[in-house]
Amino acid sequence: MIPPPPARLASLSPNEREAIFDALRKEHKEGFEWAEKIRRFVSVAGFRLRKEANLRFGQEARAHLEWMKRVLFYRALQGGPAPGCPVDQAYLNALFYVHEAIERKPMDFALRQAIAVLESWLRECEGHCPEPQPMGPLFDGLAVPWKQESPCQGVVILAPTPRSLFALLLIAVFNLLGFRPALIVIRAFSFSRFQEEWQREGKSLLRKIWRKLILQSDEYPEKGRVSLRSLGEVFIEGPWHLGMQAQRLGIPCCTVNRFEEAIPTIAKHNGQIAIFTGGGLVNSALLQAIPRGVVNVHMGSLPSHKGMDAIFAALLEGYFGEVALTAHLMEARVDRGPVLRRFAVPAFGFRSIGHLRNELGAMLPWLGIDAVLGRVSGRLVPLDQPEAGRLYYRLHPELLAVVDRLLSIWAAKGGASSPLLPLAVMRSMMALS
Questions:
Q1: Residue 138 is assigned to a structural domain of this protein
Q2: Domain identity same for 216 and 179
Q3: Residue 296 buriedness (CB in 10 A; 0-12 / 13-18 / 19+)
Q4: Residue 37 above 60 pLDDT?
Q5: What angle do CA 379, 384, 388 make, to 5 degrees?
Q6: In this structure, is residue 6 part of a structural domain?
Q7: Residue 120 φ then ψ, to 5°
């Protein structure tokens, strides 16, 4: 028997490494636990894996990385979570990072073969894709109950920057409903925060800063039928800046380095429920300080797909019958907490990952508002998430390219995504006008 993996991976002897790999081949529980620990370690480090391995394992770094590559490759080829899936994309994703940390090359023959097998299976299962097991009642886009449920007292908006389109749209719609948030909390974009988010997101952070913070546009340049930017042009009156909007509408506003610094201010303004619109992790002290909870709208289907790039991770497992948003009450663990509401459409008809992300992102404010109002009025009952699903991490560009190709192929075949996506927004617009 081998011991379970420790909380923090440390250097192992050659015999220990071989024993762990042997346990995995024999399908022992401990072997799978070690494989999952390695997947998480590698995925969190991402493109920084070589540096992290040198810090953890010293002169034995290369030996440990080669062992991890063996473990990940073996585990990847045991099949994915969806029925019939020949390759587990989450382990394949980690495999790309560990391979590049060893070789400093994008792909070898074995990796090319694995990704080709996965992509071939995804194309073949287009007509009979597996179904996820999501939670929460579906949101149909109708804002009819909102007028009866407002004004809603004690709403706090947690915003990642003063130029957040998500947060600005929340304020605009709340204003249409005839009430104002109790407080806006903006997280400052300091150098320490840049370092923190760079560790998590890597080079993609630069694109996000350029497009969202500087251009104040959508995350991707692809044009669709609807996006946060296009909704902003319809709904946002006045300056596209949270501080200026707060001053214009008489809403209390504060800027903090970390959201928990705002706890005394939230208490002062009787904050009862909050909606998180981005800005990194939220700690347990803040979650406990807001009586009705903090609503987060996760891009993915809970409880099955948690973490980063979850909507694309689901597509790589064959779940392209629907892509989803899930509104839930936050806990200190990533994407845990009771589910309130969800929104879902098929993936067919979206031309690219940018097209999909921009259009699905347009539903973030609407689902968030519905979850907040439904939670306070009692219309929506929180559903406890089971201890199920998997935590995903930043997808490697090679796997993102697979998703992009698949979406392009499906769109070229004439597939059409559900009209619910733009229709839901239009219905909400008309209901509030």
A1: no
A2: yes
A3: buried
A4: yes
A5: 140
A6: no
A7: -60, -45
Give a three-class secondary structure readout of the chain.
CCCCCCCCCCCCCHHHHHHHHHHHHCCCHHHHHHHHHHHHHHHHHHHHHHHHHHHHHHHHHHHHHHHHHHHHHHHHCCCCCCCCCCCCHHHHHHHHHHHHHHHCCCCCHHHHHHHHHHHHHHHHCHHHCCCCCCCCCECCCCCHHHHHHCCCCCEEEEECCCCCHHHHHHHHHHHHHCCCCCEEEEECCCHHHHHHHHHHHCCHHHHHHHHHHHCCCCCCCCCCCCCHHHHHHHHCCCCCCHHHHHHHHCCCEEEECCHHHHHHHHHHCCCCEEEECCCCCCCHHHHHHCCCCEEEEEECCCCCEEECCHHHHHHHCCCCCCEEEEEEECCCCCCCCCEEEEEEECCCCCCCHHHHHHHHHCCHHHHHHHHHHHHHHCCCCCECCCCCCEEECCCCHHHHHHHHHHHHHHHHCCCCCCCHHHHHHHHHHHHHC
Provide the β-strand partners of residue 250.
none
**The pLDDT of residue 213:** 64
| CA 307 remoteness from chain centre | 5
pLDDT in tens, 347-399: 888 889 999 999 899 899 999 999 999 999 999 999 999 988 899 999 999 99
Q: What is the mean pLDDT of the chain?
A: 88
Q: How many domains does the chain have?
A: 2
Q: What is the CATH number of the domain that holds 227?
A: 3.40.50.170
Q: Is 395 exposed, middle or buried (0-12, 13-18, 19+ CB in 10 A)?
A: buried
Residues 37 and 158 in one domain: no
The model's pLDDT over 130-145, given as tens digits with 9 standing for 90+, comes to: 666 788 999 988 787 8
CA dihedral angle for residue 326, residue 328, residue 333, residue 335, rounded to 10 degrees: 0
**Same domain, yes or no: 97 and 196:** no
Within 10 A of 357 (CB to CB), how many other CB atoms are there? 22
In the block, which residue shows the tokens 């509104």? 327
Bridge partners (DSSP) listed for residue 324: 344
Instruction: Quote the pLDDT of residue 314.
Output: 92
Residues 104 and 177 in one domain: no
Tokens of 126: 């287009």
Domain that holds residue 288: 144-432
Torsion angle of alpha carbons 362, 364, 366, 368, nearest 10°? Answer: -170
**CB-based contact 1:34 (threshold 8 Å):** no
